[in-house]
């Protein structure tokens, strides 16, 4: 299951996705007058019930410059499960910053293993998520955003059929 950046949605009304041309569907995060402290974006990963999730890949471009003289990741990435029938949720892959080796503004695929594999339940929704630390404001989209959310992919097996 693969999603493009344009399929991610904001969890906060003060943040929105801005399409970035020539990226194949990547987005940057745009905010209005009020910047939320954590402008989370998530993408639904529609994996069939009974499948075993064993890997999540995040596709991203991170320039890794938060504060001049103090380089750092511009995003935290995670994979989570929500059970609306019980109003609960939990991280399958905990929040983790973009690795320093990827802070070069180039396109990267960050593969994270799910170990042990997680069985997909019919009552649960699964999402790839990001907490971006690089947002832009104003009336015009940025010419060269420092963080681009390109997409995500979930790898799974169906040992007993799905």
Instruction: Please state the overall shape, judged from the principal axes of the Cα atoms.
Output: globular
The strand order across the widest sheet is 2-5-10-7-8
Please give the alpha-carbon distance between the first and last residues: 14 Å
Number of helices: 0
Counted beta strands = 12
**Helix-and-strand structural type:** mainly beta
Radius of gyration, whole Å: 16 Å
Strand content: over 45%
Q: Give the low-confidence spans.
A: none
Folded structure, characterized:
The protein has 162 residues and is mainly beta. Helices cover 0% and strands 51% of the residues. It contains no helices and twelve strands. It has strands at 2-4, 9-10, 15-19, 27-31, 41-44, 52-62, 75-83, 88-97, 107-119, 125-132, 136-137, 147-157. The strands form three sheets. It has a five-stranded antiparallel beta sheet, with no helix packed on it. A four-stranded antiparallel beta sheet has the order 1-12-6-9, with no helix packed on it. A three-stranded mixed beta sheet has the order 3-4-11, with no helix packed on it. The model has no long low-confidence stretch (mean pLDDT 92).
